[in-house]
Predict the 3D structure of the following.
Amino acid sequence: MTASADIARAHALLAAAERVLVLTGAGVSAESGVPTFRGAGGLWRDYRAEELATPGAFARDPRLVWEWYGWRRAKVAECTPNAAHLALARLALARPGRVRLVTQNVDELHADAARQVAAELGADPAPAIPLELHGSIFRARCTRCGTRAVSRDPIDASSRETLPRCATCGGPMRPDVVWFGESLDERVLGEAFELAAAASACLVVGTSAVVQPAASLASVTARAGGAVIEINPDETPLTPYADVSIRSGAVAAVPEILG
Ligand code: NAD
Ligand code: ZN
């Protein structure tokens, strides 16, 4: 198929779908300036994400891990939603409850887009707020009592003593994200699998589809008879199962297939 035939087919599948699940990964935010883990710019100093985003790394050196999260928070705080985030928010608000967003991202750019588009329309942003499979870098969680705190303030990681502490019990806080080797929140995961099974189409944008179990959501839709549409400049393990695979960046392709 030619590229424009792929776009037309993706458009038709999404327009005809009674229920749509949109699954996004780091690639949807790449053109907003948020580095992906596996692409260029994914390194911080000489560390790979897999060396820092783990419970072991935090136990060994919480200051180093918080310093990295502080750097990522500052970087993401400068970024704004791109045309792909905005088009997905418009879609979810146009078909409330029937189009649901599920993201592996921790940058909150889908939620920012939901609030921006909802404000333009005078609508409630809730239908376009994504289910966050891996948490958010703007939330912290107490390692002792589980209390959560939301903040975009800078992190002072100059010493162990200045790291975020719990307002309730004084315990050490950690980023409220799912690290490599940790399990996902069961309620969130259960809801995502229900959405995948009920979807007549699953649109997968910018994920390398190598991180489980998020990567298997699209195959749940496919097994239930739904269509799978993938947008990614590179081939992924999902490509062989996709009904349509669009080899393009999210900013060019998403508004086009939804337009
Ligand atoms: P990944 O970094 O493993 O893969 C990113 C994918 O995006 C790749 O397949 C790449 O080909 C594709 N891509 C690159 N540029 C693109 C573009 N312009 N348009 C569309 N696709 C593009 O990311 P992942 O699959 O999301 O999984 C890694 C984990 O890393 C996730 O669990 C997530 O929590 C975390 N992470 C999150 C962020 C974020 O919140 N923005 C950034 C980096 C990593
Ligand atoms: Zn606490």
Observations:
- The two ends are 20 Å apart (CA to CA).
- The pocket of nicotinamide-adenine-dinucleotide (ligand 1) is lined by residues 25-27, 29-31, 34, 36-39, 104-107, 134, 206-208, 211, 231-234, 236, 249-250 (CB under 6 Å).
- The chain has ten helices and nine strands.
- The first helix runs from residue 3 to 16.
